[in-house]
Amino acid sequence: MITQEMIIADIIAQHPATLPVFRQYNLDCCECQIADLETLGHGAGVHKVDIEQLLVSLNDVLKK
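Structure (tokenized):
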């Protein structure tokens, strides 16, 4: 399960299928240098993305 406390780069490394979701929300995290340090919750806040909806979308990918 992906949580808002997780580091973005770790999510992408462990679950590469989430990349399209990040792109869907206009989060180019795989190209961002801060992704190695930034939590998902912080990144969503900075980019004004609804964290709850992002979490649902990311975790839906894990169910497939």
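The CA atoms of residues 5 and 24 lie 20 Å apart. Residues 8-62 form one domain.
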